[in-house]
Specification:
113 residues, alpha+beta, two-stranded antiparallel ribbon, 4 helices, 31% helix, globular
Length: 113
């Protein structure tokens, strides 16, 4: 378990806080073909916050307080997804192998059983 402070210091200086950084990384992943479940609540959450840039030209995601002032609900499902982008993950450098042969994998964890 790793604590993530949404208002804390980001890894990259391009962002005003950690939450903005995670959401931007999530957006990049989705734009590159990342797949999410066909969940209307999650899709709705992803569209709730707006963004701007601060005086130092750093990306700043709309705060939950500002979202609530607009009469919208907190995007908790999207925040949960964004948390999966809190730390960089190294890509696989080689294909999975079983007994010297490339593994065939057709398991889709997002597909309903």
């Amino acid at each position: 378990i790793q604590e993530i402070d949404f208002g804390g210091r980001p890894i990259s200086a391009r962002y005003s806080n950690r939450r903005s950084e995670m959401w931007d990384r999530m957006a990049e992943w989705l734009n590159q073909g990342g797949a999410i479940p066909n969940d209307p609540a999650l899709k709705s959450d992803l569209c709730i916050p707006s963004y701007s840039f601060d005086a130092s030209n750093r990306l700043r995601l709309e705060t939950k307080d500002k979202i609530k002032e607009r009469g919208m609900r907190s995007p908790d499902l999207a925040d949960a997804l964004a948390l999966t982008f809190a730390s960089p993950v190294a890509p696989h450098k080689r294909p999975l192998t079983i007994a010297g042969q490339q593994a065939v994998h057709d398991y889709d964890p997002l597909e309903a059983a």
